[in-house]
Amino acid sequence: MKYYLIAGEASGDLHASHLMAALKEEDAQAEFRFFGGDKMLSQGGTLVSHYRDLAYMGFIDVALHLHVILKGMRKCRQDIVRWNPDVVILVDYPGFNLKIARFLHDHTRIPVFYYISPKIWAWKEGRIRDIRRNVNEMFSILPFEVDFFGNKHHYPVHYVGNPTVDEVDAFLKAHPRDAEGFRHEAGLDGRPIIALLAGSRKQEIRDNLPRMVQAAQPLTAAYQLVLAAAPGIDKDYYAQFLQDTGVKVLYGQTYHILRYATAALVTSGTATLEAALFRVPQVVCYYMKTGRFASFVRKLILKIPYISLVNLVADKEVVPELVAHQMTVENTRKHLLGILPGSEAREQQLAGYELMAQRLGEPGAPKRAARQMVRILRRSNA
Are residues 321 and 377 in the same domain? Predict the structure, then answer.
């Protein structure tokens, strides 16, 4: 069968590539055409457009490049119609993908599957109308989405497991534990590691990294600070925040850092889930300059009790979340001290991680998704 996939960022490229590998196992005749990236290209097929060509974020950035985005959308629609696939598989990236889904519903009979659903449970819940109307099947990677979509909105979804579980599991199997070897290669000394994961966007880094460093700096006699650098951020950008701090900056080593870290300060996102799966106690940090006003607006806009995936999956506060005005240097340091070895809060957090992992389920998300997709398509084509 012919599969057309659309992923609009690096994480989507990664998850889509794993799904493509699984689809090839289920369907020996699988052909691929896609908007995506290098990891998808490594699985074979035709890359129509690279996600970097459309990777604009934020209102101003999108407005300035609107003509490019609209041109890319026209190209995508025309290419899908011309190729006429058996299915279009959308991977996250809702601003673009939901518009493609609407076009396909209105102008074609090509079924639309969604892998990694838009996070409408956090905000823009009204998008459920578009999803219900335009998406044939939804494949969810977060267990609480089953209740949100199925019970609250009467739109059944398939929970297939979480691909981050697969990625961490694959890393652990491929890299036998060797703390001494890692420290030697990375130029680290023998002190335990406090990991800093300050986000992947410049604004996040600017707002969070200096406070993280200030909070952890008094502990450097006993611990070394190691920053997991984002691939799209150059060293000079980090340097302005790290001068004379002694923080070690490592690129492409996030999983290695987490494997050997004693504790972590983490900006909210998938990184919170990754730290938990490596069983690294963490403090979730997300500072915003608007402080108390941001906290007030957050309560009005966000429809969820927590911002970290760890707490959302566990459905309780497993990790402390310091958001907006709550993320002061003093508050961050207090919570960091509370999760170091020997503390009761550390043991409670580790126990909470086990609950979270149990709810996420076993590895195999791409395989389960591919198996269900192929089964549905073959049944509809019979």
Answer: no
